[in-house]
Amino acid sequence: MSDGSNQRVARAAGLVMTAIFISRILGFVRERAVAEVFGRTWVTDVFFAAFSIPDLMYQLLVGGALSSAFIPVFTEYLAQEKEAEAWHVASTFMNLIALLLVLLLILGLVFTPLLAPLVGVGFHGEQRDLLILLMRMTFPAVFFTALAGLMMGVLNSYRQFTLPAVGPIFYNIAQILGAYLLGPVFGIFGMAIGTIAGALGNFGIQFPGVVKKAKGYYKPVIDLKHPGIRKMFKLMLPAMIGLSIAQINLIVGQNLASLLESGSIVALRLANRIIHFPLGVFAMGISTAIFPTLTRLSALKQMAEFRRTFSFGLRVIIYITLPAAVGIAVLSEPIVRLLFETGQFTAADTQATAFAVVYYSLGLFAQSCLQILIKIFYSLHDTVTPVKVGLLTVVINAALSLAFLFLTDLGHGGIALAFSLTGSINVIIYIITLRRKLGTIDGHRVAATTLKALPAAAVMGAAAFATAGWLEPFLDLHTGAGRSLQTLTAIAVGSLVYLAASLALRMEEPWFVWNMLVQRLHRRGR
Predict the structure, then answer these.
(1) What are 143-154's pLDDT values in tens digits?
(2) Distance (Å, whole) CA 184 – CA 315
(3) Which of 57, 413, 54, 38 is nearest to 261 (CA)?
């Protein structure tokens, strides 16, 4: 990758990763608030299940539409210095999505009783009634979250990442306040109120930035005949299916978990949140920052630079998330104990959640790679391949989940294991397909990074596990200070060991990570 592209990606990735890091930390505070105030009960199972259909709606409309259609096409017009025409297309797209969101909001509120069994087949009576009520409360929240997604698409196309990254921070803060301040008064409905307020704030933070960019360009028009809109629809329709695959896989697992003991959905949810910390901060941060650059390079037919850029992004993701997966697995119980064991969340709940964390961690490496692999296909305006691969993995995930659930004693851990194995199969298929599509993908350097990161991560995992075990007899793990000292010391020792091992193996990636940090600090110092 050229120095210019390197610096742009480093600057953008550093900014996005910083904001996502803060957002994820607040996300843990939110999950801790739920665990502390409400515990691992059927009420929290129902609350998390209530978000499944709205989240799927968000993935279909915004996740798929933005990543696969809007950003590539809008960025292509901007790269060709056709800003007025870019906004003519954007105006039509945004107006259509807004109208569709209103329609789906109305339909969702009316037909909630019919949708409820799709996300909680094991819920009956009081549980089902609460599920329906909470689903009706969450639909408006997702309406504004989807609008915020549209704002994010516009700003990211201009390679502006600050406001889209700050919005989710406000969202998490509102949910935390909803749990701690409103939860004791209104019960689980306090969380729902906080969620709606957070969604409004997320949208409101980004909206002024888009208004500034759209000034003089936006039009209240719907021009379905424009070739740019036709191109968006051609790209969008298959991607709406493709990007919803992961959500469908989670819904399948959640439905099966509703048949298990009470609290299984909460255990899977909290375990998934722990895995999503490195996934969100690093994998999503890097892929979000690199996507506009890949799209521009593809539009300008600079394919050699395109290959170098995505190869480097993939190698950095592998370098960071592979040791993260090992570390989370070996420190699963200390991490869960530190983050969630308080109030209504007991030691037994910690063990149940840590059990799921171990099996989810097996798929962190694959899920991280998927973040950029899917973006590569979208930047090439290929949305059909992700659909084909995604539909296949839905079948694989369902089959593995059922097999582990009914043929083993893994319980909810089997659902997490099925999700991880499905992601690994997904990555293999994508790599093979991408190699056939581009001829070469710099595979030898990607393989070299992986082969060097594996032994370094193994040594790191052993060091972190030994550190945590050695400290345990000397600490009072019933206190927050003792738990923090055990977990954070083990993480620090493991990180230093991994850094030393990767430098000894002469890996390039540590220097890129260092460059991201320097770029971010330099930007703050201005």
Answers:
(1) 888 888 778 878
(2) 46
(3) 413
CB 315 within 8 A of CB 327: no
Contacting residues for 234 by C-beta, under 8 A, at least 6 apart: none
Closest listed residue to residue 356, CA positions, set 340, 342, 372, 373: 340
Rounded to whole angstroms, the Cα distance separating 5 from 489 reads 36
DSSP character string of 11-71: HHHHHHHHHHHHHHHHHHHHHHHHHHHH-SSHHHHHHHHHTHHHHHHHIIIIIHHIIIIIH
DSSP calls for 138-174: HHHHHHHHHHHHHHHHHHHHTT--HHHHHHHHHHHHH
Contact yes or no for 274/32 (Cβ under 8 A): no
Handedness of CA 448, 452, 458, 461 (dihedral sign): negative
Question: Is the CB of residue 332 less than 8 Å from the CB of residue 326?
Answer: no
Give the Cα separation of 456 and 475 in Å (integer): 28
How close are the terminal C-alpha atoms of the chain, in Å? 26
* Side chain identity, residue 391: L
Q: Tell me the C-alpha distance between 287 and 257, whole Å.
A: 31
C-alpha span between 420 and 280 (Å, rounded): 16
C-alpha closest to that of 351 among 365, 376, 372, 333: 333
Residue with tokens 């809109």: 229
Q: Rounded to 5 degrees, what angle do the CA atoms 510, 513, 515 make?
A: 110
Contact (Cβ atoms closer than 8 angstroms) between residue 310 and residue 6: no
State the sign of the Cα–Cα–Cα–Cα dihedral 445, 448, 454, 455.
negative
C-alpha to C-alpha distance for 218 and 366, rounded to whole angstroms: 40
Q: Cβ-count burial of 476 within 10 angstroms (0-12 exposed, 13-18 middle, 19+ buried)?
A: exposed
What pLDDT digit, counting tens, does each position of 295-340 carry?
778 777 777 788 887 788 888 888 888 899 999 999 999 999 988 8
Paired tokens of 296: 């521009």
pLDDT tens digit string along 108-141? 788 888 877 777 666 777 888 888 888 888 888 8
For residue 102, what are its two tokens?
A: 């209103």
> Rounded to an integer, what distance in angstroms lies between the CA atom of residue 456 and that of residue 499?
8
pTM over 0.90: no
Write the CB contacts of 97 (distance below 8 Å, at least 6 apart in sequence). Answer: 61, 62, 65, 146, 150
Nearest to 232 by CA among 389, 433, 77, 54: 77
